[in-house]
Each structure stands twice: as C-alpha cells, then as structure tokens.
Amino acid sequence: MEKKKIISKKKEINPSDVTICDATAQMLEKAKRDGVETAFDRAANMKACPIGADSACCKHCSMGPCRLSSKDPYGKVGVCGATIDTIMARNFARMVASGSAAHTDHGMSMLDLFREVVKGNITDYEIKDPDKLEEVASSIGIEVEGREINDIAMDLYKELERTYTQVEGEIPFAKRVPEKTLETWRKLGIVPRGAMREIMELMHRTHMGVDQDYENITTQINRTALADGWGGSMVATEISDILFGTPSPVSVEVNMGVLKEDHVNIIVHGHEPNLFESILVSVNEPTLIDAAKKAGAAGINLVGMCCSGAEMMSRHGIPHVGNFMSTEAVLITGAVDAMTVDVQCIKQGLAKVAECYGTHLITTNPRCHIEGAQHMELDEHNPSACTDEIVIKAISRFKNRTATIEIPSIKNIGVHGFSHEYINYMLGGSFRASYTPLNDNIINGRIRGVAGVVGCTNPRVKQDWAHVELVKELIKKDVLVLQTGCSQIALAKAGLTSPEAAILAGPGLQEVCETVGMPPVLGMGSCVDNSRILIAASAMVREGGLGHSIAELPVAGAAPEWMSEKAISIGQYFVASGVYTVFGVTFPIIKETKFHKLLFEGLEKQGLGKWGFSPDPKEMARMMIAHIDKKRRELGIDKARERVLMDMADRQALEA
Fold first, then answer.
1. What are 374's strand-pairing partners?
2. Number of other residues whose CB lies within 10 A of the CB of residue 148
C-alpha cells in the first residue's frame, strides 16, 4: 500500500498571544493578510530542542554529537568519557566566549576609531566630551593636570589598548573595581589579563580533550566574562561618550507611531554609534533634504531601533521605533524606505521581509553581510560617501513606493539618558555630585535596593510582558530600576520611563522620584552600556555605608527575556562582580547537577554573586527582593530608621 505523504499544517499565531506591544500586534495582523512570515511564526513552528536547551548535547568533535539525558544526567557519559558537568560547562563557556567576543570586538572598533580621531586621520568625528576624557584617564592613573587634551587622549588610547592585547597583568579598568571585590578576584585568580588572551584560552580549554573539570573551566569563564564587563564593554561605552557626548536625560518618543507617511523614513539598527552619528549628518544635509522634497516628501525622518537606537535616543533625543522582536514588524508598515544595519542582533529574516515591501536593507559593516541585502561599507575616513548614498536610496524608494502603508498611531513619551555621570549630578548637584543621597535613602529604607533589568526580547515568551511585569513588581516594592537595551524600550512603550510613572512605585521610592523629578526606571542606553551599572555599583560602594564590595550591596539583576550569547556573558560578568542575577525564559543547564550547584550556590560562597532562574516575572521579583532584603539584614539596615530625604538645602550642606 502506497504511503501517503503527511504534510503538517503550520501553526497560525494569535498576535495577542505573542506580544503585549499593540503596534507589533497590529503589524502581525497585517503580515498575516500580506502572507509575510516573521520570527514569531517561525518560533511557533520550530520546536526548541530540549536536549540543546539543557546543554546536554556535545558536538565539539566528530565522535558525537553525544546526547545525555536531563532525566538521568549521570546515567551515561560522552564517547570520550566527558561527564554531564564537563559538557555543560564547555557549552556555557563557549556562550560566554562568543558573547564576550562580540562586545570586545565592538569595543576595539570604537578604540580604533578613537585612535584615528586623536591622530587626526579621521576628521568627521571629534572629542565632544573632554571632561569625560579627563575623568576616564584619571580613573586609571593617567596624569591630566595642565596637559593638552590630545596628549591625554593618546595616553588613554595606549593604556586602554592593553584591555585587548595584554598577555599578563591586569586590565586597566581593574583600577575602578572596589578594593574588596578586586581582592576576591585576585584570590580566585580571575582578574582579566587581556580580552584576546582570555577568549582564546577559554576556547582552547573547551576543545575536546583539554579542560575536563567543570570548576576549573568556570574559573576561566569568570575571567573571560569580566574581560567583557570591565574591559570590552566598558571601553566601548566610555569611548563612545568621549567621542559623541555623555548622555543626559531627554524626553523621547518611542514606538512605531514615530514613522511618518509623508516623510522619507530611515531606520538605523545595530550597535555601533558611529554609523548613526554619520547618517544624522546626512539626513540634515540641505541638498538631500531638497532632493527629498522634490521627490514629494515633507522631509526626512530618521529613527532608531534596538541598541544603537537606544544610544542615539539618549544622546540626541532621536525617536526610537522598537526593540529586537519588532524589527521585522516595523518593515510590515510599508513606510520604511531604508533600514541600515551594522552588527549584532540583526535577523537574517529581515532580508525577506524587506524584499516583500520594497524596502532597502543595507549592511554597512565588513563583519556583517546578509544574503539578499545590499552592502555599502562605512569607511570612517569618509563616512558620508556611504550615508549620503543610503539617504539617496531611501528617497528613491519613497518616490516609487508601491507597498500599502499602515502605521500604528501609537507613540509613548519617556525620559532616557541616565548616565552614571548624570545620576551623580542629579543626586548632588553641580558642585557636590555624590551618591550620598542614594546610599542614605537605601540605608534609611526609603529605597529598598537597586535592580538592573536588562536584555533582549525572545519569541519563546510574550514580547515585553516579562520585562514590564517584573519591573512593576520591583518598583511597587521600592526598588529603583536601572535599564539598558531592548528591556528599556519595552518599559518605555509601557509608559514606565516617565516621571509620572512614580505613582506606581512604593511610597518611599515614589517620594524620592517626586523630589528629584525622575522616573522610577532609569534608562541608561544600549546593552553594551551595562558597564554603566557596574560603575554605579562601584560608586555606591565607594560612597560608604553599604559594605565594602559589590557582593555586599542590596542589589540584584535580571534578564527576563534573554536570547543571545551576549546575555550569558553579561549575566556572568555581573555574577562574577558580586550581583545576584536572575534569568527568565530558560537556562542552559540541568538542575541538580554539580555545575548547576556551582553557578547557583557555590560562586556566592566564594565571595561572588550567584545565578537564579524563573520563567515567571512575579517569582523573579520575589527572588530578587528576598536577596535585597538578605543583604539589608547582613548590613544591619533592615531595622526601621528615621527616613531622611535629601532636599536642595541638604545637598548644599554636604561637605565638598
């Protein structure tokens, strides 16, 4: 009897089941009508591999792949004899290595740009924040008094280059680490030497037949992750501030309603701010504005997406159109004339969606080509050659639009741009900038603690939902929230980044927010800018009264919808720095194994932080608050105390 071929019917998604972003849901309905597939559809029809999700699969040599069972993890070993703990540690290590490499390579690109600007070989960019330059240089021991800016800058470049190339010693920004935290790192042998060495060594150790002790692998995991957080990522943030300006609060519009049907719409999506800074110049070029008007447009509308968008939102108030899981949906509006991308978090699926709507998808970085997209490489020595051409292509597409335009009429306004420097100023004023008011109000209980809520959006969970629900729970319990990356955009769309959102906070945090005039959720920039949270935590330790190391602070971190290897590296550098860090969605380790116990319990016993996991945002909040309360008890600040809110007179009375 002839066998009938079984054709499985594709699952059809209900937009309200996969996102709480109304604009994205509207576009998913349009995609259904247009017959266009997105990552939401692919996720619904692609079952996640349970063995891979648990890191119970090893494919590091061709004797395998070897699959172990999460139900009986110690029931068998790999062909080479590798145990489940070795296999999981290797897989986890390679995620850290890849994530760290992504941030580190980005940071090195920014440092290369900085060097060429200082040497005068690149003239389209300049040092916009010389004060930040001097502050960064001073923080790592470079003399600044009475010296020319360019001389300081060249010394800074030479010193920061060691972050990447050094093979022995400690990376420069180790000087910023609280003394007791650094002492713990030295005792454990995890102070990073140079990022290239750490990533190379970690990859070597995870090769078949090299490091086969999960605890020893974890030592190098910590050192590599710290090379990211206190190295590559921190260099990227600090150099970007020096070249393009340190963010300060600005009111910004977010969501797809920032697109304009009668304008040429250009989206910049990626992670490198130099592309965005250059295209900002091009869209304001009079001849190109005139060309757009001759094509029938009212003007040129430049908006950001994902992390480079978050940086430009914070520095220049450029509108932001959405986070990672909305990148395909925004093209479905039909209104996007060009989307230009560089590196990191760029879906290959964008090429197909862009083709459906006649949108130009343009790659600009030699590290990132996409099959089906146009490539126009950005040369920092002459960036306008690329960015002007992008604008010209967008104008041409506007003039010849054929796609049906449907722009969701949703815009959310919030305040973003809370750099460490501005938080310092906000709390203490121009002459007595200080974290004293923050520490005092944590000590007296008005603020319970601080939480960093960061990370991606993931189609395996309802878009934005976990971020929003977690943060609502935290601020309701008087926890001040710091945010970066796609998480920041989720909260902006939910209206939680405006000062008016303080009404949703607990009475103590609400009073602080109303007095200072700030939101209960402080947006700090892109995912690379998680280093700002590390700097803020170090400042809290230095200010006094909250312990002597980051591990003693009443703080916690979370990535409720993480999806990338960068997120694992970020999580690990926060854990290694001393922060309890909780992830949602899934976690790539089998519970009750020795490696799991090391990450979730053992590291804390070594004087570091520890991991936590829950897919439920309310449970995540409970876990984080319980940890914050534990740290308050250990510091002896859990008792009821007289609450003192610093007003301007109090600030002026502070000692200089």
1. 362
2. 8
Q: Which residues pair with 413 in a beta bridge?
A: 253
Count other Cβ atoms within 10 Å, centred on residue 512: 24
Judge whether 17 lies within some domain.
no
Within a domain: 6? no
Do 568 and 467 sit in the same domain of this protein?
A: yes
Angstrom distances, CA of residue 499 to CA of 334, 454, 472, 521, 646: 34, 20, 14, 9, 18
Q: Which amino acid is at 56?
A: A
Does 653 have pLDDT greater than 80?
A: no
3 state SS of 302: strand
Residue 233's closest CA among 591, 571, 634?
Answer: 571
Are the C-beta atoms of residues 432 and 651 closer than 8 Å to each other?
Answer: yes
Residue range(s) defining the domain that contains residue 189: 84-244
Partners of residue 365 on adjacent β-strands: 368
364-387, pLDDT tens digit by residue?
Answer: 999 999 999 999 999 999 999 999
pLDDT in tens, 97-151: 999 999 999 999 999 999 999 999 999 999 999 999 999 999 999 999 999 999 9
Confirm if 258 and 318 have CB atoms less than 8 A apart. no
Q: What is the pLDDT of residue 430?
A: 52
| DSSP 3-state of 250 | strand
CA distance 98 to 78: 24
Of residues 352, 355, 480, the one with CA closest to residue 427:
480
* Residues 177 and 150 both lie in one domain: yes
Q: What percent of the chain has pLDDT over 70?
A: 95
Is residue 596 included in any domain, yes or no? yes
Answer yes or no: do 290 and 146 share one domain.
Answer: no
Residue 503, classified by CB atoms within 10 Å of its CB into exposed (0-12), middle (13-18) or buried (19+), is exposed
Q: How many whole angstroms separate alpha carbon 191 and alpha carbon 65?
A: 34
- Judge whether 336 lies within some domain: yes
**Token pair belonging to 212:** 């086969």
The residue type found at 324 is F
Query: For residues 8 and 292, what is the distance between their CA atoms, to the nearest angstrom?
Result: 48
The span from the CA of 625 to the CA of 505, in Å, is 14
Say yes or no: 497 and 607 in one domain. yes
CA 352, distance to chain mean position in Å, is: 26
Letter string b/e over residues 186-217, b meaning 16 or more CB atoms within 10 A of that residue's CB: eebebbbbbbbbbbebbbebbebeebbebeeb
